[in-house]
Design goal:
about 230 residues; alpha+beta; 60s Ribosomal Protein L30, Chain: A; 6 helices; about 25% helix; globular; AA_synth_put
């Protein structure tokens, strides 16, 4: 047996060594600083006392992670960490949305949000959701084409955020303009960021205010004559 072929044979010791690499995207998220992953799911059965033909299911998946830019200045390059972290967040959060709602074909509306802790910059929150490294991954996994509507901000722990959503392929479909409220009981800590992905399986209950395809022409002329 040649020396080369001998070196290719695993020893008992090497075979017993565990693979230190992440074995799942959840493991990878943990290695990138994610502290917790949670899912909020709401199912609306009736509106104004009237049952819906189909329950409206809304879900929001939340990742709480260590802010990788704490201690850096406003001139720091955010790209390396964004490119490493944002796609993994998009994957693990979208997986949870699909588990809550069903296959991508069942998802009709989507949105995103990020909240940075008090020791971070607003740009730190934006970096994790406002680039293709998050948006393109979430959009592809949910089979959407629309730009993702969003909310972002800075808050102390126990914050609440209202995450907006609209249609995943027809952003001007007014029926699908909706939101889900997300409570963050212990986050973000000053050195953390919360990243949220949201989705719904349909429009608002009993939506009936039309959209841009049915709107007439409206200008400031309608204000004329309203006052003496």
């Amino acid at each position: 047996m040649s020396a080369q072929s001998q070196s290719a044979v695993p020893t008992a010791a090497s075979a017993a060594e565990p693979d230190a690499r992440p074995q799942s995207f959840d493991d990878l998220a943990r290695s990138l600083g994610v502290r917790s992953l949670t899912l909020n799911r709401e199912e609306t059965m009736a509106e104004a006392g009237t049952p819906l033909d189909r329950p409206l299911v809304q879900a929001a998946a939340v990742a709480v992670l260590r802010n990788p830019w704490i201690g850096t200045g406003p001139d720091a390059d955010l790209a390396p960490e964004t490119e490493a972290i944002a796609p993994v967040l998009a994957k693990v959060l979208t997986d949870r949305l699909l588990a809550a709602i069903g296959p991508a074909t069942a998802v009709e509306a989507f949105g995103k949000a990020a909240v940075v802790g008090t020791a971070g910059e607003l740009e730190h929150a934006g970096a994790l959701i406002h680039t293709p490294f998050f948006g393109n991954i979430m959009r592809e996994l949910l089979e959407g084409t629309s730009v993702l509507c969003f909310a972002d901000g800075r808050a102390a722990a126990s914050a609440s955020i209202r995450v907006p959503m609209w249609h995943k392929t027809h952003a001007t479909s007014r029926d699908h303009y909706q939101s889900i409220d997300v409570r963050l009981p212990d986050a973000p800590q000053p050195d953390e960021i919360c990243v949220i992905a949201a989705a719904a399986n349909g429009p608002r209950p009993f939506a009936r205010i039309g959209d841009r395809r049915t709107d007439g022409t409206v200008t400031t002329d309608i204000l004329k004559g309203l006052l003496p």
